[in-house]
Specification:
By secondary structure, the protein is mainly α. It has helices at about 20-50, 65-75, 85-90; strands spanning about 55, 80. Helix content is about 40%, strand content about 5%.
Length: about 110
C-alpha cells in the first residue's frame, strides 16, 4: 500500500510506537480540535480586524478542562463557560426569551 496525501485529509497519525497508549491518541485528538478551532478564530480575527479577549463556549467538549486550557493558551484569550454546559440543547426546549439562569455567563 502506498501512502497518498489528499488535501481533504484531516488526520494523519505519525510517530506511533509500541509505547503509544489510547490516552496519547485521545490527547492528540483533543489538541487537534483546539488547533482547528484556533485556525477558525484566526481567520475571523483577520476578517474582523479585532482581537479576541474572551471566548464564550458551550457544549460537551467544554467539560474538558484540559481542552479549554489548551484552547485558551493557543488563542491567548480567556475561555468562559456557563454553569450549564449544554445550553444549545436546553434552549431548544424553552420558548424564546425564557433563558434559564444556568445558561447565562457570569
Amino acid at each position: 500500500t502506498r501512502f497518498m496525501f489528499s488535501p481533504t485529509d484531516l488526520n494523519v497519525q505519525i510517530g506511533l510506537s509500541s509505547y503509544t497508549t489510547p490516552a496519547h491518541i485521545a490527547l492528540a485528538t483533543l489538541e487537534a480540535n483546539a488547533f482547528q478551532t484556533r485556525a477558525i478564530l484566526e481567520s475571523m480575527k483577520l476578517d474582523s480586524k479585532t482581537d479576541l479577549k474572551h471566548l464564550k463556549v458551550d457544549g460537551g467538549m467544554t467539560n474538558g478542562d484540559m481542552v479549554m486550557k489548551v484552547l485558551a493558551d493557543l488563542g491567548g484569550f480567556t475561555v468562559i463557560r456557563p454553569e450549564m454546559r449544554e445550553c444549545v440543547l436546553l434552549l431548544l426546549s424553552f420558548p424564546p426569551l425564557s433563558l434559564p439562569s444556568a445558561c447565562s455567563v457570569h
